[in-house]
């Protein structure tokens, strides 16, 4: 049985997630740049890695869904795109929790993400029980797990870069973006 999210309970749930996430990210030394849209998506800066990350929510369709992502490799031509597709598939296949894909926005670039479904506790009527849910959400977004999520993203991005460099000549410039 799924939780009966109303517009109000979905907003309350996402707000609690966002507050927990901001608190934990700031404790890790990350800076919250901005809330990006009406869903409350967050853009944050990890100073240790000198990288922007986007955290996306889907308040309307699936309030339990959350995605960490960043784009990191620009694609300049059809040959590089073909190589990137092969590397995305390979790294996604061996990575933990990660998906790599090509995103076409202004110019094509490789994006990497980790997607999570966060827990909810419901009462006997199927309604969201925030008091019981909050500790579970905090556990899923603890500093230790956030570090693992970010490490998985970084490890997969590094593996993608290694595989791409193997496929192309050593003389071409790097395509890392931030």
Could you explain the architecture of this structure?
This protein is of the alpha+beta class and 178 residues long. The protein is 42% helix and 29% strand. It has four helices and six strands. It has helices at 7-27, 78-94, 130-140, 143-167, and strands at 30-35, 42-46, 51-58, 62-74, 98-105, 107-117. A six-stranded antiparallel sheet has the order 1-2-3-4-6-5. The longest helix has 25 residues, at 143-167. The chain is elongated and about 60 Å long.
**Average pLDDT reading:** 88
Residue share in helix: 40-55%
State the name of the first-level CATH class: Alpha Beta
Overall geometry: elongated
What descriptive keywords fit this protein?
single chain; 178 residues; alpha+beta; Yope Regulator, Chain: A; six-stranded antiparallel sheet; 6 strands; 42% helix
Report a brief summary of the structure.
The protein has helices at about 5-25, 80-95, 130-140, 145-165; strands at about 30-35, 40-45, 50-60, 60-75, 100-105, 105-115. With about 180 residues, the chain is α+β, with helices and mostly antiparallel strands.
Topology at a glance:
Elements: H1 7-27, E1 30-35, E2 42-46, E3 51-58, E4 62-74, H2 78-94, E5 98-105, E6 107-117, H3 130-140, H4 143-167
């Amino acid at each position: 049985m799924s939780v009966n999210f109303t517009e109000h309970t979905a907003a309350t749930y996402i707000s609690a997630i966002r507050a927990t996430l901001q608190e934990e990210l700031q404790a890790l030394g990350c800076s919250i740049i901005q809330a990006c849209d009406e869903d409350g998506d967050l853009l944050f800066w990890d100073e240790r890695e000198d990288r922007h990350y986007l955290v996306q929510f889907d308040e309307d369709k699936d309030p339990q869904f959350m995605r960490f992502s960043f784009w990191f490799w620009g694609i300049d031509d059809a040959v590089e795109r073909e190589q990137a597709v092969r590397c995305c598939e390979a790294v996604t296949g061996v990575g933990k929790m990660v998906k790599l894909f090509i995103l076409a926005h202004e110019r094509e670039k490789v994006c990497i993400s980790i997607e999570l479904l966060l827990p909810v506790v419901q009462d006997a009527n199927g309604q969201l029980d925030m008091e019981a849910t909050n500790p579970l959400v905090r556990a899923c977004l603890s500093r230790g797990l956030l570090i693992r999520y970010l490490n998985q993203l970084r490890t997969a991005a590094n593996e993608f870069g290694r595989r791409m460099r193997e496929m192309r000549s050593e003389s071409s410039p790097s395509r890392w973006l931030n």
